[in-house]
Design a protein that fits this description.
The chain has one helix spanning about 1-60. By secondary structure, the protein is mainly α. The longest helix is centred in the middle third of the chain and has 60 residues, at about 1-60. The protein starts with a helix and ends with a helix.
């Protein structure tokens, strides 16, 4: 009876370690995605400033 309990605890510990590894990998992927999204938003912001400067140049030329 004691050995069954010990093996159940060992299986539970192994299962939890696997779960933690899986979720840490998922959280790492989510952090990478969030960094990529912030880089995209900065690129869009820079593009909008370029469009604004271009429109100001057109107004000055026109």
């Amino acid at each position: 009876m004691v050995s069954i309990q010990l093996s159940a605890n060992a299986l539970r510990a192994r299962y939890l370690r696997c779960y933690q590894r899986k979720y840490s990998a998922i959280s790492y992927q989510l952090s990478v995605i969030s960094y990529q999204l912030s880089a995209i938003s900065y690129q869009l912001l820079a593009f909008s400033y370029q469009l604004l400067a271009f429109s100001q140049q057109l107004k000055a030329d026109g």
